[in-house]
Amino acid sequence: MSSDPSSQTTNTVTLSQARLVYDGVVLFDGLELALPQGQITCLLGPSGVGKTTLLRLIAGLATPEPPTKIATHDDASYMAQQDLLLPWLNVMENTVLGYRLRGKVRGALDLDEMRQHAATLLSQFGLGSALHQLPATLSGGMRQRVALARTLLEDRKLILMDEPFSQLDAITRLELQDLAGSRLKGRTVLLITHDPLEALRLGDRILIMAGRPATLGAPIDVANSLAGDTPRDPSDPALLALQAELIKRLRAAHAATRDTATRDTARGMT
Amino acid sequence: MTALRLIVTLSGLLLLWQTVVWLGDVPAFILPGPYAVAVALIDRWQLLLMHGAITALEILAGMALGVALGMASGALLVQFATARRWLLPLLIASQAVPVFAIAPLLVLWLGYGVASKIAMASLVIFFPVAISFFDGLRRTDPAWLDLARTMGASRTALMMQVRLPAALPSLASGLRVAAAVAPIGAVIGEWVGAAGGLGYLMTLSLARGQTAVAFAALALLTALGLILYFAIDALLRALIPWQADSVATDHRS
Q: What is the pLDDT of residues A132-160, one digit of tens each?
């Protein structure tokens, strides 16, 4: 399996010499990133450093500048910080949104079949009785569960997640991590998070992005440092020790970014 | 409760009106009392109904045409940058032309029949519909559009399944304004020159000193406007049940 990342695993996404300028500020230049197939890569770093922009680049939502080269082998499924549920569609229809939007595609399952899959997934997520409710009637945790179900139902090999659980309370967040962790196995995931614990519970590798222009530090190989399968037990002493180490590194990353950033470019770009 | 409040308010106003007429000894051709208006309504109901039907037709056809054109323009503006560059300034400039001032031109070009009034009504409502729809379409949450794009949605799917429903609350504001002003357009058209309709009946009866009939026509026109507004409002509420309402405007409470 992919337990030894030093060996030549195939990369689902390879980004090289990435350059992006936003509002006259060089966010990154010559950035290299590879997402090994079947692994969860967590991306941490200070706000405004360009993590979201990097993810949007891979998702095809932001246009890179030359000489950026992106090689992606799979279409991505995208999950954002907000649940992005459409308020006029009920839980079920929001979950099958991708299939509704694409319409009848040859070879794809028909919408009714997808609804059956969605119903199964949603009831596993504890939403079995809410299928026909509108998003406005749901709690934040329930809404994010629907968003997770929608992301998983897309059935893409590559999943890009931008702080998907950051707006939830601590306990709900742990629950969502449990749900996500067990279902993301085998897929290539890039997960942006501000929560070191979340990265350590879910990640195979952790990257820290810092500086301006931003660079990525050497990956922290969580899969080999910690015993146990994802989602890992948050009370494991080894995990907590690694968390302390990670926080130390993040502090250094924050300081480095503060020093190099000449302008405040928070502007919602995390 | 609302109905009761309405009846109380209305009876109060009618009573006040009748009192003014009695005490002031106002001649009937200047200000007929509500009683005289009611008599005119009953006695001349066939005449009123005939002209009312013409005006109602003008308003409804004008609404349909104006809403269709307005929505088409809004969609065109949001879909094509070229349309935005060329049509948007024109659209805004066209609002500087007082629509009422071109009513005689419309009568000249389209004749004394219903066509010129339909054109008038649709012109009056075109702008609020087009602009509110355009605003709603372009203010669609970009994050929804991003999500839909990563899902491989086509341009048409983005428009029909994301932008259009997202624009409905904004379009609804435009449609409510349209419902309120469409009768004005039709009546102005009738004043300028017509062969029928409540506006025509009003000018005609005023010229003949039959002020009570003019008032009866006015009452009918008001009723038409109210019916139109509340029908549109009810339709919109049924179409957009998911829109959060932070103020109680419920007519049933």
A: 999 988 988 889 889 999 998 888 889 99
Across the interface, of A77, A101, A136, the residue whose CB is closest to B153 is A101
d(C-alpha A138, C-alpha A175), whole Å: 16
**Residues in CB range of B163: below 8 A, 6 or more apart:** B78, B137, B140, B145
Q: What is the residue whose two structure tokens read 């109602």?
A: B56
Interface test with A, best of B141, B150, B159, B242 (most A CBs within 10 A): B150
Judging contacts by C-beta atoms under 8 Å, the chain A residues touching residue B149 are 60-61
Instruction: Produce one character per residue of B177-192: b if its CB has 16 or more CB atoms within 10 Å, e if not.
Output: bbbbbbbbbbbbbbeb
Q: Is the pLDDT of residue B171 over 90?
A: yes
Q: Does B143 contact chain A (CB < 8 Å)?
A: yes
Q: Which two tokens mark B172?
A: 């609804």
Calculate the CA dihedral of residues A129, A131, A137, A138 and round it to 10 degrees: 80
Find the CB nearest B157 among A59, A78, A101: A101
Residues of chain B in contact with residue A156, where contact means CB-CB under 8 angstroms, are none
Q: How far, in whole angstroms, is CA B24 from its chain's centroid? A: 36
| A201/A181 Cα distance (integer angstroms) | 8
d(CA B235, CA B233): 5
H-state helical runs in B80-210: 81-94, 103-110, 114-138, 142-150, 155-157, 164-192, 198-207
Q: What is the rounded end-to-end Cα distance, in angstroms, of chain B?
A: 7
Query: In the predicted model, what is the mean pLDDT of residues B23-32?
Result: 85
Is A197 a residue whose pLDDT tops 80? yes
Q: Phi first, then psi: what are they for A191, rounded to 5°?
A: -120, 115
Terminal CA-CA length for chain A:
33
Nearest to A102 among B141, B153, B165 (CB): B153
- CA distances to B66, B193, B197, B198 from B225, rounded to whole Å, are 16, 21, 14, 12
**Which of B188, B202, B191 shows the shortest CA–CA distance to B51?**
B202
C-beta atoms of A102 and B162 within 8 A: no
Strand partners, A205: A41, A221
Model confidence, pTM: 0.81
Helix, strand and coil content of chain A, in percent to the nearest 5, comes to: 35, 20, 40
Any idea what the Cα angle at residue A123 is, between residues A122 and A126, rounded to 5°?
A: 95
Q: What is the pLDDT of residue B56?
A: 95
Please state, in angstroms and rounded to a whole number, the distance separating the CA atoms of residues A43 and A56. Answer: 13
Q: What residues in A contact B243, CB-CB < 8 Å? A: 87
The residue with greater pLDDT, A252 or B54, is B54
More confident residue, A78 or A71: A78
How far, rounded to the nearest angstrom, does the alpha carbon of residue A47 sit from its chain's CA centroid? 16
CA B59/CA B103 separation, integer angstroms: 15
List the 233-252 stretch of B: residues with Cβ below 8 A of A. Answer: 240-244
Q: CA B92, CA B240: separation in Å to the nearest integer?
A: 28
